[in-house]
Amino acid sequence: MAGHSKWANIKRQKARVDAKRGKTFTQLSRAIIVAARHGVADPAGNFQLRTAIDKAKAAGIPNENIERAIAKGAGTYEDGKPTEEIRYEGYGAGGVAILVEAFTDNRNRTAADLREAFKKYGGNLGETGCVAWMFDQKGVIVLEGNFAEEQVLEACLAGEAEYYEFGQALTDSPRERLRQRQNTYYTAEIFTTIGNLEHQSQVLQRAKLPVVEAEWRWIPSNTVEVTDGEVGRSLFKLVEALENLDDVQSVTANWEMSEELMQRFLTEA
Q1: Average pLDDT over the chain, rounded to whole?
Q2: Which of 214, 237, 218, 228 is nearest to 256 (CA)?
Q3: 200 and 162 Cβ atoms separated by less than 8 Å
Q4: Residue 102, number of CB atoms within 10 A of its CB
Q5: How many CB atoms are located within 10 Å of the residue 183 CB?
Q6: What is the distance between the alpha carbons of residues 33 and 59, in angstroms, rounded to a whole number?
Q7: Looking at the whole model, is its pTM more than 0.85?
Q8: Residue 243's pLDDT band (boundaries 50, 70, 90)?
Q9: CA–CA separation, 205 vs 142, rounded Å?
């Protein structure tokens, strides 16, 4: 798979580890806030919001918390703390480009926290625009399950997707990997424009393909191959430190590394 798919695999597997530690609740709530702010506060008319709510419910977030997050995004929940979305940019070890999207009520605090994390793990927070030109924002739909590549191709043509990537699904367990291979358990990522994300998702669902995620994602136009173990470890620690900050909504990087290195750092995480 291409570099950005390897990064996506890193993100998904890391998310499983983080979920076990209760780290996802805050990020999922922020995703609802952002989605409600970008569009209408009604999930029936806001695909991004509907997707964010589905993820939150799957993670066990109470309905009360979900409703509060929607209200915050819509501006109808008054807690005396106006918030704003800010994108920060910088470099990690080995010259890897990193984009950080934050949702904050104090940009000075957020910038200071980010700067400290970058510095601690061998990177540096840069100026606006220093790495954004290396990324394009796309709509991405993830499939996981038992299906054929021909089905994906047909649905992508019908939904006017830009391209897709298809491969064997990854899992942390060797036994589970064997079971998945025996049962042709695959993963696919379909890439499309932001405006076409909902339409493409509906086409895939009508084709009865197993959609597990639909999101907006920053896709790197070029990648940096990481082969040095210490550089890779520094990058993993930096991303984890950034994601653990209360104000951070998402972190995207343009590195590519072997599955062996990826599994090593996921085990250490």
Answers
A1: 82
A2: 228
A3: no
A4: 24
A5: 10
A6: 16
A7: no
A8: confident
A9: 12
